[in-house]
Amino acid sequence: MQVIISNQSKEPIYRQIYAQIKKQILTNELKPGESLPSMRQLAKDLNISVITTKRAYEELENDGFIYSIVGKGSFVCEQNNEMILERKMKVIEEQLLSAIQNSKEVGIELEELKELLTLLYKEDT
Amino acid sequence: MENVIELQHVYKAFKGFELKDLSISVKKGFVTGFIGGNGAGKSTTIKLIMNLLKPDSGTISIFGMDYKKNEKEIKQRIGFVFDSNIFYENITLAEMKKIIKPAYRKWDDTLFNQYVDMFELPLKKNLKTFSKGMKMKASLTIALSHHAELIIMDEPTSGLDPIIRSELLNILHNLMQNGERTILFSTHITTDLDRIADYITFIHNGQHIFTKEYYKIEEEFAIVKGGTNLLDRDTEQEFIGIHKTNHGFRALTANKQRTKNIFGDTVIIEKPTLEDIMLYTKKGEERDAKSYS
C-alpha cells in the first residue's frame, strides 16, 4: 500500500491518508479482506503521530471502507465496493450526460468533446 | 481511555512562581508533547510527576496509584531521560549500569546490551568523554533497560543535531509499536512534535491552557492576516493575541470557523504552528489571561 503525504498541503494529514486509502480500495488495488498495516506501523513509516493514522482509520471505518478486529487489525470491507463503484458510475453518467447536452446546445461535435475530455483527464493527475 | 498520569487541582507555590489549579492527564499508549515557555512550569510539573517535589494541595496519581503508598512500585515502571547529564562523570557506562541495575526488579541485561549496540555506545570510556547525543542515548538506554512503561523526557532533543534528533524520533516510533508504552515529552523544539506527538499539553504561567489531539489544533486554531481597518473593539475579541503594524495585522484565533464566518474573504487564514500558539498566548496575556481550552 502506497501512501504519500504532503506537509505543504492545506488538506489535513489524516484526510490525505483517508483519501489515498479510499482511492486504492475503490480501484481495487486494495482487495476486499486484505489487511491494512497497523495504525502504529503506518504512523512509524510515514513519520507522523499515531493519533493521525488512528483518525484516518476511524473515518474509513465509519464510512464503511474498512473494518477492525480488536487485536488483529484492520481489513478492507467486502460488500460495499461494488455498490460504491456503481454509485460513482451513476454520478459520472449523469455528469457526462449534462456535458453532452451542453455541447449539443452550442454545436460542439463528439470528436471535439472527446478531445477536450482527454485533455482535461490527462491534466488532472 | 486509560490515563497513566493524572494531576488534579494541583497547586505548588515558590517565591515568585506558582502552579495554579493544574489538572492534566496523559493517556496510555500515546505520546504527549508538553510545551510552554521558559518558566511556564514544565520542569516543576515533571518534578511533581516524578515525586521530586510534593504539591501544596491537589492529587497526583501515576498508573492509578498514589506516591504516598506505592512510591517504589511507581518508580519501577518509569524511565526518565533528562536534558542534561545526570550520571557521575568519571565512570564508564558499564560501571554506571552496575550501580543502577540493582535498583530495578525488571532490569534486563540483554536489552541493555542491545541498545548499547544499536546506539554504538562505548562501554569502557568515561562518561565525561561522551558527546551530548551519546549522553542522551546513554540516558535513554538506562531508561529502557528496565522495561519502563512510562517514559518521561525533559527536553531530550535540545542541543542535538538534526541527524541525532531524527534518530531519536525513529527510536520513539519503534517504542510505541505495541501500544503499551506512554511517553511524556517536554520540548522547546516544537517541530519535533509534528512527527511524533499524539496529544499536546500546553501550559503558560503556571496554568494549564489546553490538552488536545494534535490534529485538532489546526482545525480549531488559525493565523489570520488582514488590514487593520477590520479591527475594532468587537472584532479584536475574536483573537487570542494580535500583532499590528502599519501594513496590517496578524493574529491568532482559537475558533477558526467563527473567524471565517465573521471575516469571510477579507482576511487570509493560515495553519498555525505550535510556536505561533505559544507566541500569541504570551502577547495576548496582558489583555486576557483566561484559558481558552
From TrEMBL, chain A:
- What SUPFAM superfamilies has UniProt attached to this entry? Winged helix' DNA-binding domain (SSF46785)
**Gene3D superfamilies (alphabetical):** Winged helix-like DNA-binding domain superfamily/Winged helix DNA-binding domain
What keywords are assigned to this protein? DNA-binding, Transcription, Transcription regulation
Q: Which PANTHER family does the record cross-reference, listed alphabetically?
A: GNTR-FAMILY TRANSCRIPTIONAL REGULATOR (PTHR38445:SF7), HTH-TYPE TRANSCRIPTIONAL REPRESSOR YTRA (PTHR38445)
- Provide the species name: Ureibacillus thermosphaericus
Taxonomy-wise, where does this protein's organism fall, top ranks first?
Bacteria, Bacillati, Bacillota, Bacilli, Bacillales
Name by which UniProt lists this protein: GntR family transcriptional regulator
Q: Does the keyword Transcription apply?
A: yes
Task: Output one GO MF annotation.
Answer: DNA binding
* UniProt key word Signal: no
Question: Pfam families, alphabetically?
Answer: GntR
Annotated ranges, domain HTH gntR-type: 11-79
From TrEMBL, chain B:
**What are the ABC transporter domain coordinates in residue numbering?**
5-230
> Does Transport count among this protein's keywords?
yes
Residue intervals passing through the bilayer = none
Q: Which Gene3D superfamilies match?
A: P-loop containing nucleotide triphosphate hydrolases
This entry's Gene Ontology molecular function terms read: ATP binding; ATP hydrolysis activity
* Key words, A-Z: ATP-binding, Nucleotide-binding, Transport
Q: What are the coiled-coil residue ranges?
A: none
What SUPFAM superfamilies would the database entry show?
P-loop containing nucleoside triphosphate hydrolases
- Which superkingdom does the taxonomy of this entry point to? Bacteria
Q: What is this protein called?
A: ABC-2 type transport system ATP-binding protein
- This protein's species is Ureibacillus thermosphaericus
| Native organism taxonomy | Bacteria, Bacillati, Bacillota, Bacilli, Bacillales
